[in-house]
Write a structure and sequence with these properties.
InterPro entries: DUF4440 (IPR027843), NTF2-like_dom_sf (IPR032710). By secondary structure, this protein is an alpha+beta fold. It contains 4 helices and 6 strands, in the order αααββαββββ. It is 32% helix and 29% strand.
Length: 182
């Protein structure tokens, strides 16, 4: 059984393009020459791994959340908003430039940290646009936390980096406290 597993592992390694050269069996049955090993080394460089767009957006959301803990939501969003076409929408106001976003979304007095978690990621088949959506919680000192949903529309810029075109957050409706029976 061990020999079978070893043979199976050797076959799997043989099919792998990134297998070390010293493990590769020569296809002609003879030992490789110096000239053939040098051409193999230069032409068979492993490809660099690129995460799928959905995973890239999830990681960007995690990074944005960490940045918001240090710089506040305005600072975090200003770092990823598209400088020419991006906007952040809040009830009654739209922030269009990174400076407006940073100033307009500065943490209010008494605000604690803000946390969010995407629960939906969609990417266009072309891979150049995407959307993330999820829940957020803004901790407020001395009162109940503000909770709600957010949506961010993303687009790749000319360098391939994801930039936010639109970000909006909508708080949950306030809960009515039940009337006490007498």
């Amino acid at each position: 059984m061990r020999q079978f597993v070893f043979l199976l592992a050797a076959v799997a390694l043989g099919a792998c393009e990134t297998m070390p050269e010293f493990l590769a069996q020569p296809s002609t049955g003879s030992a490789p020459t110096a000239s053939s090993s040098s051409t193999t080394a230069t032409s068979a460089t492993p490809a660099r791994y690129t995460a799928p767009p959905e995973q890239q957006l999830l990681e960007l959301e995690r990074q944005l959340s960490r940045t918001a803990q240090e710089s506040g939501l305005g600072g975090a969003l200003a770092s990823v908003i598209d400088p020419s076409e991006g906007m952040v929408i809040r009830p009654g106001v739209i922030y269009s430039t990174p400076d407006e976003v940073s100033r307009g979304l500065a943490s209010p007095a008494g605000a604690g940290p803000m946390y969010w978690q995407p629960d939906r990621v969609e990417v266009a088949s072309s891979g150049d646009m995407g959307m993330t959506s999820g829940r957020y919680v803004q901790v407020m000192s001395g009162s109940e936390a503000v909770q709600g949903r957010y949506v961010v529309v993303w687009r790749r810029d000319s360098s391939g980096a994801w930039k936010a075109l639109t970000e909006t957050r909508v708080p949950d409706p306030t809960r009515q406290t039940p009337a006490r029976r007498r």
